[in-house]
Batch of 2 targets.
Target 1
Amino acid sequence: MPLAELREADAPPAIAALYDRLRTASGVPLVNFIHRHLATLDGVLPWLWHAIRPPLEDGSLAGARSRLAAAIPLPPLDPAPSDPAILALVETYNRGNLTNLILLTALRRALANDPPHPAPPPPRLAPEPMLPAPPPLPRLDALPPETAAQVTALAARHGAGVVPSLYLHLAHWPDFLATLPARAGALLDPAAIAAARATTLRLAEAEADAIRPLLAIEEPLPDPHALPPIETFTRQVIPDMVPIGLGLRRLLASGAPPG
């Protein structure tokens, strides 16, 4: 059963204000799916924002994000014809996924009292400028049947029962979406996804523990129903998409402009 979400256009004023704070603090011009889902649970998104705000605003998260992105190994990739708009969209998801993987993993491990990995504190980086806004996120049921089938086929490679928003967003470029399995086969093979997930999760847990002391967890989680999706997103959905997004960045940034 698909997870409920509160899309940005449908958010009431109090949630819309939190969405704006998340966008501003991360420099990501959209609200990622995990936050749109947590916004449907009573009191969870305000609690989350309070907890993650310190490392987001003092530059620690940006340092951890940069260090994690540099550490994740990627397979060799053949350059693809580059489209600046697609590359900009991929960059938006890369920043959002790296941010959420580190912060939500830190929260998950703190709430579970997991023993921390020894990890040096991340460098504190200056705030990054807001990335350009992408086109509106399509709805799966509004896509042409062929495009919807391509999106769901890509999502099925992950086995989590969640359609990653990046795949939905790429429906704005149906020709690119259709050729993505061939162009990025080294990233999208299910066995490669599973192996990259394990590596990304291990590296992300170390970065999460580096910022864990900065979290402001002062009250219990308002709704325990938030824990299962946080588990799923930090253990599978986001660590699947981080190496895929970084690989697409490399593939697109090295390709020539389309003729």
Target 2
Amino acid sequence: MRLITARGLTVQAGGETILDHVDFQIDAGEIVTIVGPNGSGKSTLLGALMGLRTASGDLVRKEGLRVGYVPQKLVIESSMPMPVLDFLNLPRRHPRTEIAQVLAQVGMQGAERRQISTLSGGQLQRVLL
């Protein structure tokens, strides 16, 4: 089953072409790795596939498909107190039992009251998952 199909995907920014006629598809059950040097358009491609970047060409996502993205780096202001539980309830609230279960799945059980700004980089990425 096809989840995402891109044909002729082109992204331009500041008068520069970042992606030029990219054809790309992802089928259910596939694990896809996007590899390339700095500045080659990896993040731009992901942004376009998620609908966060304006692109031309054809882009079809399976109806109801939810796509997530864990950034390489997320800067959180350390002076703004925000426990993991509050962060995970953005933009909508989730049952505490569901949050506890998901945190346990990523090896962060019991972290609900920890401040986001005190987490290590790896711990933050687990919470972002």
